[in-house]
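Handoff note, outgoing to incoming analyst
You'll be picking up this chain. Sequence as last confirmed:
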Amino acid sequence: MDRENNKREMGLNLDIEIDSNSGFCYGVIRAIKHAERFLVTNNKLHSLGEIVHNNREIERLGKKGMDIIDYNSLSNLKNDIVFIRAHGEPPQTYILAKNNGNKIIDCTCPVVLKLQQKIRECYNEIKNIDGSIIIFGKKGHAEVNGLIGQVDGKAIVIENIKDIDLLDISRPIALFSQTTKDIEEYNRIIKEITQRIDKKGFDPNNFKFHNTICKQVSSRYSNLKNFALSKDSIIFVSGKESSNGKALFEICKQNNQNSYKVEAIDDIDIEWFRPKSSVGICGATSTPNWQLQEISNFLSKL
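Most recent structure output, in case you need it:
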């Protein structure tokens, strides 16, 4: 306790920097702007799922009138307005909404929309040669569910290299990735599949892979590595449910052991910092800039 009091008395005098590449990605910014614009003149907006995996941002939008609904609620919603978030949705969602007389505000990220189209087109070709669509992503993730829906559920999801054992590499396969995955991990999976096909003597031309990771997101992995290495300690701000947040925090932790993941100021422990040390503040694609600034303001006062 004396140590903490001494720190408080003399001040930590931290050198604080917010990572300029952190914060909402383009797709999330676009979706939130559309939602806020609608709520200026309307007191409620039904969002199918959370617009971002960040509890504090959900609370902020909830106060403006955003109401989170699930698929059961959508089934019972009639003649209203449904908000589609950046993650995207399968075709069945649009059919259900239309049949119930609902109008849609579609804020699917353009990068995700392009990926959905690619998967549909590829499936129409590969199914004729007894091939399979493979998606590298998190099972159950909203974006992945939307991608699977483009091919009526006839796709295989793999989460890591171990899952390659589930694939029949003797048949044609087309590999795609969830837009927010780590490009290095995706390349390792591509390399592993290629090596297995070569080892078994199968036709390498039967394996097609597509670079479908968002460029804005993929650049964050390398930028974040350098940012983490440049600081004495890292405060990573993210919601607990954000898969992108979990992956990016691992990058921080691998490159700087003094990395700590928080959701809010209350999660911060003063014992993490040494006087006159450098602190980097960064976050996931679902972390708002105002939250990063809030953390910075708090640390500045220590």
